[in-house]
Amino acid sequence: MVVNEETQATTVNDRNTELKAFDDTKAGVKGLFDSGVTKVPQIFIHTPQISDNIITIQNNKLVQFQFPVIDLAGIDEDPLKRKEIVDRIRDASESWGFFQVFNHKIPVNILEEMIDGVRRFNEQDTEIKKQYYTRDFTKSFAYHSNFDLYSSPAANWRDSFYCTVAPSPHMEELPIQCGKIMMEYKEHVMQLAICLLELLSEGLGLSSNHFIEMECAERLAILCHYYPPCPEPDRTMGTSKHSDNNFITVLLQDNIGGLQVVHQNQWVDVPPTPGALVVNIGDLMQLITNDKLKSVEHRVLASNVGPRISVASFFGRESSKVYAPIEELLSKDNPPKYRSTTIKEYTDYFRAKGLDGTSALLHFRL
């Protein structure tokens, strides 16, 4: 027994040493790729989760699902068209927790330049990029590899930068490679989020501005991922299974693919569609709608092609406001399923837990 404990302690110490050595390079996974590694380092290897009974159906699909794709054209001109879109968004948010939108009014050149901005930042000289590397998430701009590097069971094969762009961006802290386009993209994606929140409110029988008045889009944080090609994609993940700790997410992804969502206990591919944006419900939206709208687990597969680039816009609020299930959605037969919480409490718990394959919502359930 003593031998086993010593062995276990040695393994933990060795892993911590490897994690710190990787972190101290400040070069991220891109640095590993540039060094020409042919094997995935031990800290990135994901062991199969015995408790995970979700079926993977990438190639030999058990059931052919039609991922929801919604055309937003006409929402402000045609009341009947708007009602149809509201119904489709509500249905997708209840059953999938995910959908794609097009005709969203964000110009294609803005989408393309945003992707290019992420590429420029990640592919610049490493010594320049290192100055932004930090695990202090109170900073306006933070570049890092794996926010949960020291708490997750295994690291993911990606680098990221995180920037709070609303309500009070600090332009002087943004890198020149992507700062300007982030501010342009921010203006467009915030208008889209407000539109989507209005449609979701209407779908639940609430007033159009209900979620806006709840300040569900008061804060916007943009998280940009860069997934270098992986030498052993079957041994690691691009992003582990998780749900988002916000109200809604608007995702811009390139044409590489790899995003999957859980639907009817199966992993289903989210096809990259040129010009379209992916929208998903976050944990806090599921909490305030008392499980009416679903925050669904998703992941990104590692790949030997790339780099894959994605831009996730997370909409939420500053940390002090208390949120609980909306009274108008409750009844004697539908009592509250979650306790009240603040954004700070939820976010702190989510970050401390890391992407361990479990939902943070369980911690707040009554």
TrEMBL record:
**Protein origin, superkingdom:** Eukaryota
What sequence ranges are listed for the domain Fe2OG dioxygenase? 218-317
- Mind listing the GO biological process terms from this record? coumarin biosynthetic process; response to molecule of fungal origin
Q: Which UniProt keywords apply?
A: Iron, Metal-binding, Oxidoreductase, Vitamin C
- Write down the InterPro entries for this protein, in alphabetical order: DIOX_N, IPNS-like_FE2OG_OXY, IPNS-like_sf, Oxoglu/Fe-dep_dioxygenase_dom
An example Gene Ontology molecular-function term: 2-oxoglutarate-dependent dioxygenase activity
Regarding protein family, the annotation reads:
Belongs to the iron/ascorbate-dependent oxidoreductase family.
Q: What is the name of this protein?
A: Fe2OG dioxygenase domain-containing protein
Species of origin reads Penstemon smallii
